[in-house]
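Quick one, tokens below:
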């Protein structure tokens, strides 16, 4: 779904940005300009961003555990 009509940013674009390391909403705005023109999409954009961060958290935590385990084994 298109979240930001002004800049044609979709929910998938936001999810991809989070997977690629965007850590906070302001960083997302810097990268995409989302919610910086008319601002109508800001609530929706923040919700999609928060959901994407929450969904990515378990995967990132699992990756950290693997890295810690590798350090202990080495």
């Amino acid at each position: 779904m298109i979240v930001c009509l002004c800049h044609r940013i979709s929910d998938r674009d936001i999810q991809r940005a989070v997977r690629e390391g965007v850590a906070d909403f302001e960083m997302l705005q810097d990268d995409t300009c989302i919610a910086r023109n008319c601002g109508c999409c800001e609530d929706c954009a923040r919700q999609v961003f928060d959901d994407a961060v929450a969904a990515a958290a378990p995967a990132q935590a699992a990756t950290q555990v693997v890295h810690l385990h590798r350090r202990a084994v080495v």
